[in-house]
Structure formats: structure tokens, C-alpha cells
Amino acid sequence: MDTTAETTSDSFTSYCGATVRRAIDLIGGKWTMLILWELLDREHRYAELQRRVAGISQKVLSSELKSLVSAGLVEREVTPTVPPQVTYRITAEGRSLDDVFAAIDRWGHRHR
Amino acid sequence: MDTTAETTSDSFTSYCGATVRRAIDLIGGKWTMLILWELLDREHRYAELQRRVAGISQKVLSSELKSLVSAGLVEREVTPTVPPQVTYRITAEGRSLDDVFAAIDRWGHRHR
Predict the structure, then answer these.
(1) Quick one: pLDDT at residue B60?
(2) Does some domain include residue A6?
(3) Which domain holds residue A40?
């Protein structure tokens, strides 16, 4: 292996490796990304979200939403109707993931 | 619900939703992303990869690598030493994920 490339590569890892790993811990995961993708489109009620993220269990959806709310990427609004209506929407912080999903979309179109 | 918004939202989803969902299915898992991230840096032998992707089990690493090779994102090279040495490296197709990880890195730096 070319030594120059190796050195560059190591600097590359120490420069942004930790940040990327932390970001992947937060937003990586198939279900997390699919939920974020739906909420980047528009706000959803819990049941809509479960329908749109096909195949997700209620347990996983609830737990994922709790994590996303706690990370400040999604907000949860309860309307005091009977029964109460719970709506989830992306926060400004979550909205800033637009670039990531745009890159995934571009990649997806190239990789067919 | 506003019908116009719903239509726009549905067009948006049908326009890029399927592509993004397929891409997330392929590359969205936490372990998948962490492995790709390491291989975007440089090629690795199996044991190095297991050490670098902290916490991954041998079973999951093997299965993830198999999927990535079968998707054409990673290639596997066996050097016929004793014992044989197995090296994994990103393909050109996998290398095109650079943009996705760059977007994650930028997002990670903003979201602290």
C-alpha cells in the first residue's frame, strides 16, 4: 500500500472518525432512518407513521420515537382530544438532516 | 387533512421515496454504515475490521460483509497464505458513498 495514502488516510480517520461514528450511533439504523425520512416529508400521527414505515412493530416504533425526541430531532405534540391525538414532527435540528437524505437519494439513483 | 398538501407529499414520496427506502435497506443499518465507513478509509483484513468496528460480533460482521460483497459495494480478496489472508476493500460503487458520509460528517459537526 502507498505510504502517502496511508498517512492521509490516518489523518482522515482521526479528523472526522469520531464525529461520524457518533452521528451513525444517533441516526444510523434502518428504522431510525426510515422514520426520519417520513418525518422530513411531513408531520405524522403515530398510527400514520406505523402504516408508512411498513413492517415496524409498535414496540420498536415507540422506542425509536422516544430516542429521537430525546435527541432533539423530533418533537411530540399531544392534542387533548378524546382519545388524545399524538403528532410527531421533525425539529429544526432534525430538518438539518435533509442534506444526508439528499445524498442518500442521489446515491440511490446512481446505484440501481 | 389538506388534499393539496397530501397530493404534493405523495408525489414527493413516490418521486424519491422508493429510492431512498431501497438505499436505506441496503446501507442504513448501524453496523453496515460503520463497516462502510472503515472501508471508505482503507482496506482492512477481517480481524482489523472486527477490532475497528468496536462491539460487533463475528457472526454479524461476517453476515454484513457477505451482504456488502453481494451488493457490489465491497470486494473480498483471499491471499493463499497459510492461513489464508482475507482482505476487504470498497469497490468503486461503494466509494460513491463518500458523499453520503461527508453529509453525515457535516451534520455531525453541527449537531453536538
Answers:
(1) 97
(2) no
(3) 30-110
User: Per the structure, how many domains does chain A have?
Assistant: 1
- B15 within a domain of the structure (yes/no): no
CATH number of the CATH domain containing B59: 1.10.10.10
Per-residue pLDDT reduced to its tens digit, A28-65:
999 999 999 999 999 999 999 999 999 999 999 999 99
| 3-class secondary-structure state, position B82 | coil
- Retrieve residue A43's grid coordinates: 408531520
- What 3-state DSSP class applies to B72? coil
Contacts of A13 in chain B (CB under 8 A): 41
Q: Name which of B33, B8, B35, B14 is nearest A24 in CA terms.
A: B33
Q: Which residue has the cell 432512518?
A: A33
Q: Which residues of B touch A (CB under 8 A)?
A: 5, 9, 12-13, 16-17, 19-30, 33-34, 37, 41-43, 93, 96-97, 99-111
In a domain, A35, yes or no: yes
B103 Cα to chain A: minimum distance (Å): 5
Q: How confident is the model at residue A17 (pLDDT cuts 50, 70, 90)?
A: confident
